[in-house]
Amino acid sequence: MSLDRIKNDLDVANLIADSVESSGIKPGAKLVLAYSGGVDSELLALGLSEFARQHHEYRYLLVHVHHGLSDNADAWVGHCESRATVYGLPISIKRVVVDTGPRKSVEAEARNARYNAIKSQMAPGDALLTAHHLDDQLETVLLALKRGLGPKGLSAMGSSQVFGKDKQLIRPLLSISREQIEAKASAVGLVHINDESNSDDKYDRNFLRLEIIPRLKARWGAIATTASRSALLCAQQQAVIDDEVSERLPAFISFSQGRYSLDLGLLGLQSDNWQSLLFRGFIEQLGFAPPSQTQLAQSLSQLLTARQDAKVELRLGDLLIRRYQGRAYLGSVIDEKCELPLHKCIEVDGSSLLDQGAEVSLSLSKHKRLSITKQNSSDRVRLPDSTQLVSIRFSVKGSTRCHPVNRAKARELKKLWQEYGIPPWERERVPCIFYDEQLVCVVGYWIETRFLCEQDELGLVFTSHQV
């Protein structure tokens, strides 16, 4: 194809218009371009400027991320700011620090830092535009094969997808080859950045781009197109699987006391394939990255074959998988640390709780607070005497005798933990309220019979909440 033909045929503004329309992006949304200044994003920026002149119903922003990994990074900032002026588009420069420590993937860390920086410039309903193209798709498929991924990984990149919880990501150039982009850029005399790191084949994508894909294309000229077609077929099959998993999974999941759990007894009745699909779906639904197939199989084996009373705790990166009373629970290693109480015992000035209209808020952990309010309705604890010491305690002895409201007899605390289905790792984080040495309530679970207010009597309500 001649340069003149490419110049006339490749209309990036129209590609953007098609992507915006098919993605249902609403007027008033901000279209944010991940703008590196490389030839791909430069051509997309040019197309966005042409689109913006015809579509005033949207807002626009170029975001250039300064990673600090190249000696030329400052010069690139100058280039991008200058070109943004030419395009008539606003630009934001975001400086990030990339973790290049041992056993870290610079590519992955830079990508995470970049996307986090871009998200900070976006609001719900906004859309991110990236300049991924047909050859990027081929690279992604080959990397998925190298990692042994299944249909979801082989689906590679979609032309549009959810970005975060309430934003979108669109790829207007995904059907366009690198050769077409470079020819178009040359035809219109586009000035762009050449990142020297693109020639370093120690990075997997560069190795494929420099060494492997040219040979594949020399043998099979349409391989990028056919690989993209395979990715689309995998995406269609994965969509059917996801729909079926979404329909079946709720029957296996329960939610109680702020925790989701998976019924392992019911899961064990399914075929091996469905066990894997449902367990992976449970992990993903709770927002965790899915483990490898080997890790998944080993985790399922330990969870499903363990004795009823066995303690099972598995750590896969940041993911914690635990078994209790025939159910699987998921947690984050980082969140677990943040949820640990700041102190084993917190004392409260009892006189402050007796003040009319007083409300007390206490920090229990990095992300949890306890509110103490005075009320004369709902279930509440009677007020302490002016001489009593009020304390919030954690890790209370299991032998402590308790007599919850609506129970005929008292029981040991460890028996009540089991009765209420509170997993062992959660018990040390449940605040227990004491007046002197007398337990008066276990926050979120029960009030002791002797300390329950009657009728219109003024009392205290203890509520723990995340912050």
From TrEMBL:
Major location category of this protein: cytoplasm
One record GO biological process: tRNA modification
Residues of the Lysidine-tRNA(Ile) synthetase C-terminal domain: 390-462
Alphabetical list of SUPFAM superfamilies matching this protein: Adenine nucleotide alpha hydrolases-like (SSF52402), MesJ substrate recognition domain-like (SSF82829), PheT/TilS domain (SSF56037)
Binding positions (ATP): 36-41
Enzyme Commission designation: 6.3.4.19
Catalytic activity: cytidine(34) in tRNA(Ile2) + L-lysine + ATP = lysidine(34) in tRNA(Ile2) + AMP + diphosphate + H(+)
Keywords, sorted A to Z: ATP-binding, Cytoplasm, Ligase, Nucleotide-binding, tRNA processing
Subcellular location: Cytoplasm
Matching Pfam families: ATP_bind_3, TilS, TilS_C
UniProt xrefs under InterPro entries: Lysidine-tRNA-synth_C (IPR012796), Rossmann-like_a/b/a_fold (IPR014729), TilS/TtcA_N (IPR011063), tRNA_Ile_lys_synt (IPR012094), tRNA_Ile_lys_synt_N (IPR012795), tRNA_Ile_lys_synt_subst-bd (IPR015262)
GO CC, alphabetical: cytoplasm
Record-level Gene Ontology MF annotations: ATP binding; tRNA(Ile)-lysidine synthase activity
Manganese recorded as keyword: no
Family: Belongs to the tRNA(Ile)-lysidine synthase family.
Role noted for this protein: Ligates lysine onto the cytidine present at position 34 of the AUA codon-specific tRNA(Ile) that contains the anticodon CAU, in an ATP-dependent manner. Cytidine is converted to lysidine, thus changing the amino acid specificity of the tRNA from methionine to isoleucine.
Domain notes per entry: The N-terminal region contains the highly conserved SGGXDS motif, predicted to be a P-loop motif involved in ATP binding.
Protein's recorded name: tRNA(Ile)-lysidine synthase
Gene designation: tilS
